[in-house]
Amino acid sequence: MHLLLSIDWKILYAKDLFLSPLYLALIYLWAYYKKSSTYKGTDIEKYFIPALTVRMVGAVLTALMYQYYYHYGDPFSYWLCIKFCWDKILVSPETYFNVMLKPFSTYSYETMDVLGELDYFKFFRDPSTNLVIRAGLLFSLFSFNTFLPVSYFITIFAFLGSWRLFLTFSELYPKMKREVAFATLFVPSVFFWGTGVMKDPLCIGALGYFTYAVYQIFFKRKNIFTSIIWILLSIYIIASVKTYIIMSYAPAIVIWVISHYWGSISNKFVKILAGPIFVAVGLLGGVLVLKQFSSSGQKYSLEKLMETAQSTQSWLTLVSEQNDGSAYSLGIIEYTPFGLLKVAPKAINVTLFRPYPWEARKPILIPAALESLFCLLLTIYIFFKIGIFRTLRAMVNNSEVLFCMIFSLIFAFAVGFSTFNFGALVRYKIPCMPFYFLALAILYKQNHQFFQKKTKKIVKKKMVATKSSLPA
């Protein structure tokens, strides 16, 4: 009999109840020390503790949700593997260290034999799930192999990555710290689903560190060595867990850096000449990175993506019809490159703006529907307040907005096209949401300032005209 059939199917035990408050106390001692030693007296100090708190609350709520609402899910599978390896550490230390330090293909015979007792053996073979197990095993060393403390440690990594993203954009836009804080630290879906023993917090944290490291190297020209280390580590994490994030992010980050340097050219003639060169280099760099990742992982090739999406759509539609589930459809899809272009607006729309309120058939989807509605209304308001053409022109002229929008739209298309289920979509889409809200915030704030200046000029002209028309 396999191990899975002989254990309790749960993630929370009595020791979570006793150890969780202790670890929370230690985490907040560290947080208050960090705030007072690093951010004391700055105008970003006030965001640190609240941002950490919503993440910790999210970590607790997701654990309770999976244990008592879903009764199953990815955290159960990961924790089963982590707990199994930890329980075997005295019987077979080699198994623990093989899983922690070696790729699957180099596991020893003893390790393969021990892991063969587990039904979830495939989780060790898949690099994406293997990395979550490794992270859990690492933090188990400091938490007596207890789910909630391990969840806190992984959540802190995600929080610190988001904090780095906040630092990056608050330095670029010092008058927009409140808006940047909301976009990077307080988006509900991100601080709820981007927690716990899951793939998502690892990706969220890595994206934040990646962006901050690129900013340090190419914009500030500081901390070069440590930033390169963080870039390499972030690429390893994201490429291992969700390669399609890198495939969406690579073109955007290359264009961000190149457009920044292009925008810094003061000579108009040189700027015009350099424009096509920068565009060509940006496109070439993006294509080369995409080609590299596509060749290293065949499951992310265009053909495989279409094949997987087609089978997933058919299966989820059938299940949804039978169980009144939360599947969605993009209509009739031609699984060709041209067919992808035609369906792209629908896929982007479903990621950013759905489920609509009337599509939230389950209580767990109601918060997601409200956030999506807010995102839709905010987008419509900004486009009509600024003007569609002026908004599009502002996107192209601002390198940060261009970066955030390119990543958000490519990522939104990839996720919306391949998920076909609102329950999964709510979690899968969170890496792009901070970037999309950042783009909207910058667009609105900068153009709002433009309109304020314009209004002041008009009022001043009217006052001058009125004064000149008065009799002497």
Question: How would you describe what is shown here?
Answer:
The protein has 472 residues and is mainly alpha-helical. The chain has three domains: 191 residues, no CATH class; 54 residues, no CATH class; 152 residues, no CATH class. It is 77% helix and 0% strand. Helix 8 packs parallel to helix 11 and helix 9 runs antiparallel to helix 21. The radius of gyration is 25 Å and the shape is globular. It starts with 13 loop residues before the first helix and ends with a helix. The N terminus is likely disordered.
Give a concise summary:
With 472 residues, this protein is mainly alpha-helical. It is built from 21 helices and no strands. It has helices spanning 14-38, 45-70, 74-87, 93-101, 109-115, 122-125, 127-140, 147-172, 177-185, 188-193, 199-220, 224-241, 243-263, 268-296, 302-323, 337-353, 366-386, 388-397, 399-419, 422-428, 433-469.
